[in-house]
Design a protein that fits this description.
- By secondary structure, the protein is mainly α.
- The protein has helices at residues 2-5, 20-26, 36-48, 52-65, 70-89, 109-127, 132-144, 148-161, 166-178, 182-195, 200-239, 244-248.
- Helix 3 packs antiparallel against helix 4, helix 4 (52-65) runs antiparallel to helix 5 and helix 9 packs parallel to helix 11.
- It is globular and about 70 Å long.
């Protein structure tokens, strides 16, 4: 019985936790992936882990398996843009390819990938004109290429096909602000906030759109007022051309209203940019 009181609990050794090295070692090599979507998913995982070059290899492998996989082209463009930024910060200068015979500036790898994405998304739309996600992604791709007018058309079509999507409404409002169409941007941004009350980005963009509309309304209102005042002064001066006192004294127009404070409206940040 004395031995029973002195007994000790047996502690099992803790199971070894996998290290990052062992986790990477068990991953399937990219070259062995035979499904394009699986390669795309692996590229996204690597990209999220800041393994940019490995993600590029995975995206390129996905495109080899399926050249029409639009999302792979799009993600490849983002990865190339991030890699270029990382190289620039590290002081690595990449030699650009020579310009073509038309003396156009050489295209970056990122631009080429986004242009390929545009063609791939357009093929998806040709097969299914009701593919709202394809239109939305097409709009995002045009934004990367700074083709804002084309992005607006794509976002409008995505909203038309799926008006209850808050993200679609938000991006449409954002591109309309970029195009200085502030009044038009208010509607979709209000809709975005209505659909998603916690959408802080839509709320901020809505404030920018309302401020932009107020600035334009103020300028238009005050642009017409001086013209009317000048016409009135001119007609009065013509009736008194023989008065020497009027010819020597300048006519002072009443001072206009003080300008309202002008809030700064920056180009909206776009989702999923590196």
């Amino acid at each position: 019985m004395g031995l029973f009181g002195c007994s000790r609990a047996v502690v099992e050794p803790a199971a070894p936790q996998p290290t990052p090295e062992s986790t990477v070692a068990t991953a399937i090599p990219i070259a062995e992936i035979t499904d394009a979507n699986a390669a795309l998913a692996e590229g996204n995982r690597l990209f999220d882990e800041n393994q940019t070059q490995a993600a590029i290899d995975a995206y390129r492998h996905a495109i080899t398996l399926d050249p029409n996989l639009a999302d792979a082209h799009f993600q490849l463009g983002i990865a190339y843009a991030l890699l270029a930024m990382q190289n620039e910060l590290a002081g690595i200068v990449m030699q650009p390819q020579a310009a073509n015979s038309k003396r156009e500036p050489p295209k970056t790898d990122s631009e080429k990938a986004f242009e390929a994405a545009v063609k791939a998304y357009e093929k998806r739309i040709d097969k299914n004109s009701d593919d709202d996600a394809a239109y939305f992604s097409l709009g995002r791709t045009y934004l990367k290429l700074l083709q804002d007018a084309d992005a607006e058309k794509a976002f409008k079509q995505a909203v038309k096909l799926k008006p209850e999507d808050a993200e679609y409404q938000t991006e449409l409002g954002a591109i309309l602000i970029i195009l200085a169409q502030y009044a038009e941007a208010i509607g979709p941004l209000k809709k975005a906030v209505e659909l998603d009350p916690g959408n802080a980005r839509a709320e901020e963009l809505l404030e920018d759109a309302q401020a932009g509309r107020q600035r334009i309304d103020y300028r238009q209102k005050n642009t017409n007022q001086p013209q009317a005042a000048n016409r009135g002064v001119k007609s009065r001066s013509n009736t008194n051309t023989n008065s020497p006192s009027n010819s020597n004294n300048a006519v002072k127009l009443p001072a206009g209203n003080a300008k309202p404070p002008v809030p700064s409206v920056n180009r909206p940040r776009l989702a999923n940019r590196p």
